[in-house]
Structure formats: C-alpha cells, structure tokens
Specification:
With 104 residues, the protein is an alpha+beta fold. The protein is built from two helices and four strands, in the order αββββα. The protein is elongated and about 50 Å long.
C-alpha cells in the first residue's frame, strides 16, 4: 500500500517527528505504541510492533507467524493441535521487535 499524507514534517532538535493523525488512525497507532524503525529499499520504514495476539488480544506465550503474533491457544486452534509454551519458539517479551521466528 502506498499512502502519503501530503504533509512534510520537520525533525525537531531531538530528532523527533510527528506522525500525521490520518496515518495514526489508518494504522491503529495509539499513544504509547511501539514502532520498529528500519531501512527498506533506501527509505526509512516505521512498522507498528504488535504486542498482543491478533485473534484474542492475549499478551501471553506469543509466537511469530508470517509477521503476526499469535498466542499458544490460538496457534493450537489454528493447527488443530494442543500447544504448550515448550513446544514452540516464543517471541520474547511483549514489545520485542517483530521477526518471523516460526517458519511459515
């Protein structure tokens, strides 16, 4: 998706910028949310770090699957198996940078 707000932002003396409200609303970014900052194809990319299960909103026993976080209970339901934290690759603490730790 290629979306621009049509607004240029200045970086302040501390290196901060303000993300336009229309983009915050579009991507569900709230005060206190974490954004991963990376470089992709020569551009700076900001990606919201999801710290809860995309299905049930749990913050416990999360694993990464295709760029999304899923808790053990939902992972088990999706696979048709029972899942316990010792059987998968936990993503780490809520707020950790998002990576695909689980092959998918």
């Amino acid at each position: 998706m290629d979306v621009t707000s049509g607004v240029a932002r200045r970086i302040d003396h501390l290196g901060r910028i303000v993300v336009p409200v229309e983009l915050r609303r579009l991507f569900g970014i709230e005060p206190g949310d974490e954004l991963e900052i990376s470089v992709r194809d020569g551009a700076i990319a900001l990606v919201k770090v999801e710290t809860r299960c995309v299905f049930c909103n749990s913050d416990q026993g999360l694993v990464a699957f295709r760029g999304k976080r899923v808790c053990g209970g939902c992972a088990g339901e999706l696979s048709g198996d029972r899942w316990s934290p010792g059987e998968g690759a936990p993503v780490g603490t809520p707020g950790a940078a998002m990576t695909d730790d689980v092959a998918g």
